[in-house]
């Protein structure tokens, strides 16, 4: 993709990102491998409550690195070594403290990202409304982390749901048809577009 000096290839993949983005070796990088038996329960954290207003517009685009779903008005980290077919990230920014998304994206408390695992089944995912993309159980793990792609800002409070949502194999095939390449380039399937787990560096 023009204007980008990173990707997922042999010469510009995640193991090279630190050359242009030194924060890649920072103390709260994402994703991480969540080991349930090693997590620490925090009784101060309340049950998660989520309220989305009705979406008036949805835009879906291929950024060349991932699929971006934008709502108007609105595989990344393994668990115990297990990876899922796909992972969905719902990105939220702290509008009570920051004027713009760009400002929030570089602040330590700027972003909250909901991580939702997708699991293949016979059930079709019928709606892209964010309320319909949440699992039935809102039990979650949370940790302080970063964006999983450059610029890798350490600005994210991650909320990773323990329960996956189901999508049909037919729908998963649609994801597998996505391309890294542009129209006049040789077709290159969008696969292995994930960053390996990063060191915890004291996080629990």
UniProtKB/TrEMBL annotation:
PROSITE patterns recorded: ALPHA_CA_2
MF terms (GO), sorted A to Z: carbonate dehydratase activity; zinc ion binding
GO biological process, one term: regulation of intracellular pH
SMART domains: Carb_anhydrase (SM01057)
GO cellular component: cytoplasm
Gene3D superfamilies linked to this entry: Alpha carbonic anhydrase
Superkingdom to which the source organism belongs: Eukaryota
Protein name from the UniProt record: Alpha-carbonic anhydrase domain-containing protein
Provenance organism: Albula glossodonta
């Amino acid at each position: 993709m023009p204007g980008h000096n990173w990707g997922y290839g042999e010469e510009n993949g995640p193991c090279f990102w630190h050359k242009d983005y030194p924060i890649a070796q920072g103390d709260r990088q994402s994703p991480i491998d969540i080991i349930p038996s090693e997590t620490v329960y925090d009784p101060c954290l309340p049950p998660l409550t989520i309220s989305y207003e009705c979406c008036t517009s949805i835009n879906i685009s291929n950024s060349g690195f991932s699929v971006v779903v934008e709502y108007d008005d609105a595989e990344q980290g393994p668990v115990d070594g297990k990876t899922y077919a796909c992972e969905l990230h719902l990105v939220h920014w702290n509008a009570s403290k920051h004027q713009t998304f760009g400002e929030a994206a570089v602040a330590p408390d700027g972003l909250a990202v909901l991580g939702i695992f997708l699991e293949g089944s016979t059930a079709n995912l019928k709606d892209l409304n964010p309320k319909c993309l949440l699992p039935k159980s809102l039990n979650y793990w949370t940790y302080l982390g970063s964006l999983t792609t450059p610029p890798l800002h350490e600005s994210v409070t991650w909320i990773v749901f323990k329960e996956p949502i189901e999508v049909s194999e037919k729908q998963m095939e649609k994801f597998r048809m996505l391309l890294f390449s542009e129209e006049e380039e040789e077709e290159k399937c969008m696969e292995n577009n994930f960053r390996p787990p990063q060191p915890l560096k004291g996080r629990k």
